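New to this. Please check this record:
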Amino acid sequence: MRVTHRRRLHSGPSLPARRRRGRLAAAAAILASLLTTATIGAAGPAQATGSSGSLKVLTRNLYLGADLTPALRATDPTSFLTAVATIYGTAQYTNFPARAQGLAEEIRSSDADLIALQEVSIWDTSGPGVPPSQDFLAILQAALAKRGLHYSVAAVSENANIGPIPLVSPCGSATVGDCLVTLKDRDVILVNDDTPALDTWGADHGNYTAQQTFTPPVPGAPSVSFNRGWASIEGRYGAARFHFVNTHLETEDFPAVQEAEVNEFLAGPARSGVATVIAGDFNSAADGSTTKTYSLLDKQFSDSWSTRPGVVGYTCCQNQTLTNPESQLATRIDLVMGRRGARPLSAQVIGANPFQATPPLYTSDHAGVVASFNLDDN
C-alpha cells in the first residue's frame, strides 16, 4: 500500500463513549418497541433504522467556497496575491455558516448512519480588518447539534495546508504581510451516535504518494499540493461487519495523477476481507468522458446508482459563487459503492436544488448522494 503519513487513530476495539450511547439508545428502542407494538400493528414502522444488515451512507463535498484556479494561473507575485484575495473574498461571499444550516437540514432528512465529507475546510486568518477564522467542521457540528442530531467524528484525513499567504484584501494595513490567510483541507467521516445497532472502531487515514504540485510565482516560495488522502473505519451494523472508506481524488485536469491515486486507493485503503463501502468525490465522470478512474472502480465495486437505471444522478457542479438560478449539475462524480457483501439497495441525490431564495442559493457546488446497502452477516 503506497501511502504516507499513515497512523492508527484508535487502538481499542471501539470508541467507548459511542458504545455507551449506542447501548442506552438500544435499550430505549427495545422498550419503545414493546410499548408500541399494538400501535404499529401489521403495517410496521415507517422507517427501520439500525436493523441488522442494512446501512445508510451519505457522501457530501462541502465546497471550500471558491475556485482555486486563479491562483494556479498567476504568473507573478502581484497577480498571485490578487488571486488569493479574490479566492478568499469568494469564500466569504459563499457564506459557509449559512450553507451549514442547509447542510444540517439535508443530513437530518437523510437520516444517514455514516457520512463521508470532503473539502472540510479551515480558513485560518490573522491581521487587522480580516474576518475571523472559520472551521467548517465546527460550524457544521454546531448546526447539527442545534437540531438535536448527534454525529461524532470517527476519522479524519489531514490534507492541504497552504499558507500562510499575505492577504492584501480585506486588510486594515497597507503593509503586505500584516494580514495572512491559510487554507487547510480535510476529509472527515461522521458516525450517527443515535443508530442503536452501529458500532465503529479502527479509525485510520493517509495521504497518497501521487500528488499534483504547484509552485507559486513568488521568489523562494515552496511547492504546494492539495495533499489528497483518505480516511477509513471498521464497524459492525447489527450482526454484519463492514469497512468504510472516504476519499477525495485529484481533479480530472490531472488525469495521470488521479488514476495513480485510485490505483493506490484500490490496492490499499479500499482493500478488506469484509463488506466494504467506499464513498467520496472521485472527480471522474461515471460516463467515462473524463478519466479512467470510474471504470477502475466499477470493475471492483457495485455502484449504488445501479439501482436507478435510466436516472442520470448528476452531482457536479454549480457555479463558484452559487448564484446560478437554474441547476448546472451535468456530471456524476460523487459516488457510493460497495462489494464483498455490501449490496446497494437504493440511491438518491440530495442538495441539487436551492435551499434559500438569496445567494448562496445552494449548500455546495456539488450535490450529495444518499445510498442504502444490505450487509451480509459475517
